[in-house]
Amino acid sequence: MPFASDSARPIALPDGAGPVQAVAQDVEGQGRELVPVLGWRRGLVLGLVAFAPLLTLGAVVAVNMAMGQSTFPPSYAARIELPANAVQIGLPSIEGPADPTRPLVVIDAGHGGHDPGAHGPASGGGTHIEKDMTLALALALRDQLLAKGGVRVALTRSSDRYLLLEERSGIARRMKADLFISIHADSAEVEGASGATIYTLSQRGSSEEAERLANAENRADTVNGVPLAQTSSSVSAILVDLAQRHVAELADDFVKLVLREGEGHIAFRANPVQSAAFVVLKSPDVPSVLFEAGYITNPTDAERLHSPQGRKEFASATAQAIRLFFVRERSAEVLPAGM
Ligand SMILES: [Zn+2]
Description:
Bound molecules: zinc ion
Order of helices and strands: EEHHEEEHEHEEHEEHEEHH
Distance between the termini: 45 Å
CATH class of the domain at 93-217 and 240-333: Alpha Beta
CATH topology of the domain at 93-217 and 240-333: Aminopeptidase
């Protein structure tokens, strides 16, 4: 069951000093190489310089100067000290390799605690509850990723507990995740609705978030480690826009991999790729998708996702898509010498 958009609700503030350098490394840990970037991740600036007009370039220089860098291209690193944050929930533990340069995926099991989500009939007269199904799928996905290695994994919840929508995406942002996946199970009044759907953030949701970040009271926020309070409003708007475009492209890339790797393993519905203004998808600097793994109201879908074999198929295909996504992203991150 998807979440409604509610842009009036606050989003948990991110934390921590900005990233100082990107480390390119494939999932197997080969070919590690330090890569200079403009203080935020994924070679955003390289892509920026490649396609953006002079206005953008000017904005980048302005940001560099605001951050104490007087030259362009900048030197290796810019450390940014951020003010103390508002009250935040604790961050979950990270499982997998201890190497902090390995990519991090944050898996969000939808609903939980007093929010059960959708429900559907189970065989034998019982009931499938969405919050239980999403947690089981999230755990199965984690297990698959850990079994293959190379990827760090964190769960927004690993038990039956309630989290605000903003806390879920906020955890991914604060942990500087490389990918965020929120797992849900769909529901429909219509009999026969079945199959998985994968959502990315819609243009409307993207615009809403850009507007929110541009508001004065949200200028304590950071995007890609750059504190917006240290930039002018026009530079902030450009930074947010570029960051959003970049993560939108990455999310689209990931969706394509899920469809490809899921073929024959995950039963997708017709038109399985959708966009919506879901709150959990609004991180401007973390590629985010919401995965409706199937219809809990459809007995076939529900029984498959409830079965250990069905869960494993879902998890195995999705884990493979995640691993390929990171391999591609990391290899694209390697910048030419001298940048
Ligand atoms: Zn749901």
